[in-house]
Design a protein that fits this description.
six-stranded mixed sheet, 25% helix, two-stranded antiparallel ribbon, 212 residues, Lysozyme-like, globular, alpha/beta
């Protein structure tokens, strides 16, 4: 499948330079156990906490990192580990398809900011955030390896948490600051991604998606 074509798009704006990202080597938030997603590296961020009691995880929010020139998920993970950043996401996917987990799926990450989805605010409370390493220039590609991993990861999340496909959204779909948060970039291949995800899911979860 060709990963091409523009679509809708939109969160994380890294406001420090690439050199600052690469230089940070702070300690991870103490959390026990292996990654929730098989094969992911674990770099737990301090910017996470418990979800409100009784919260059902039912939404997945896709972001890009807005980091021109960066390829590796580990570089972005260092920013999430930085005590000064104040931000995090559950997962980061690098351009080569490598995955870093920064927050436990069951915990709340700080990725959505001021947000609203289907009448519910505070989207961080009930969502899982996935960051794609990308410059958000509109021409920086989302390579096939990255997109293949994204489909595999999102399928894992949908199946594990019983999330229907129509609740996999971009940051731009839920942000209350659309003039600032446009991720994923406009060249993110929504049609191809949706088709691949829809085909991979059990029928009960794919039912909410529009057939490609």
């Amino acid at each position: 499948m060709a990963w091409s074509g523009a679509g809708r798009g939109a969160w994380l704006t890294v406001t420090v330079g690439i050199l600052s990202l690469q230089a940070w080597g702070g300690a991870a938030r103490a959390q026990d156990g292996e990654a929730d997603f098989p094969g992911a590296a674990v770099r737990f961020s301090p910017h996470a906490d418990a979800r409100p009691a009784g919260t059902v995880i039912d939404t997945i929010v896709l972001h890009d990192t807005e980091t021109p020139g960066v390829r590796k998920a580990e570089v972005v993970a260092r920013w999430f580990l930085n005590p000064a950043s104040g931000v995090s996401a559950h997962y980061i996917i690098g351009k080569d398809g490598e995955v870093v987990q920064c927050v436990r799926e069951a915990d709340r990450a700080f990725h959505a900011g001021p947000s609203l989805f289907r009448g519910r605010s505070r989207v961080n409370d009930f969502s899982i955030g996935v960051e794609l390493v990308n410059g958000q220039t509109g021409s920086d590609p989302f390579p096939a390896a990255q997109m293949t991993t994204l489909v595999t990861l999102v399928r894992h999340l949908c199946v594990r948490w019983s999330i229907p496909a129509d609740r996999v959204v971009g940051h731009h779909d839920i942000t209350l600051r659309p003039h600032l948060k446009r991720d994923p970039a406009p060249n993110f291949p929504w049609p191809a991604f949706t088709a691949a995800l829809w085909a991979s899911l059990p029928s009960a979860l794919a039912a909410g998606a529009q057939e490609p």
